[in-house]
Every structure is written in structure tokens, then in C-alpha cells.
Design a protein that fits this description.
Blueprint (H helix, E strand, L loop, with lengths): L6 E3 L13 H19 L2 E3 L8 H4 L1 H12 L6
Parallel strand pairs: 1-2
């Protein structure tokens, strides 16, 4: 993977994506995928997002904060 500043945001609430399958049955795999992605990117992994799948809608302030932390880690946006 390229060495670029990154952050991984993971929902902390199981969600049914498009009503397919049991969200709780797939929850452990989704959590593991976030961990693996963060490890592969050597990125911060934010797991306390107070959201389901649509983090940008449910906690937009967190998304903006984390984007700013990637672009300017020494100062706030």
C-alpha cells in the first residue's frame, strides 16, 4: 500500500445494508475488516463513531475532524 496519511472510521452500531441478511451475523467480519484496513494503511482507526453505516450523515463533525487531522495534523482546520 502507498504510504499516505489515512484514517479509518468504523461504525459502532450493526447496520443492515440494503436489508440483506442479518446485520448481527456479519458484524464481527465488518469489525475485522476495519482493523485489517487500518493495519494495512498504518492508519488511525476510529471505532467510537456513534453511527451505523452512514457515518458522514450521523456524525459529520467527527468525519470533518478526522479529515482535518490527516491533512494538517499539527493544527486544527
Amino acid at each position: 500500500m502507498p504510504d499516505i496519511p489515512s484514517v479509518v472510521l468504523s461504525s459502532d452500531e450493526p447496520f443492515g445494508y440494503l436489508g440483506r441478511g442479518d446485520a448481527n451475523a456479519f458484524w464481527p467480519q465488518l469489525l475485522d475488516a476495519g482493523v485489517r484496513l487500518a493495519d494495512a494503511l498504518d492508519a488511525a482507526h476510529v471505532t467510537r463513531t456513534a453511527s451505523g453505516h452512514f457515518i458522514e450523515n450521523q456524525n459529520s463533525a467527527l468525519v470533518v475532524e478526522r479529515i482535518c487531522s490527516v491533512f494538517s495534523p499539527a493544527k486544527a482546520c
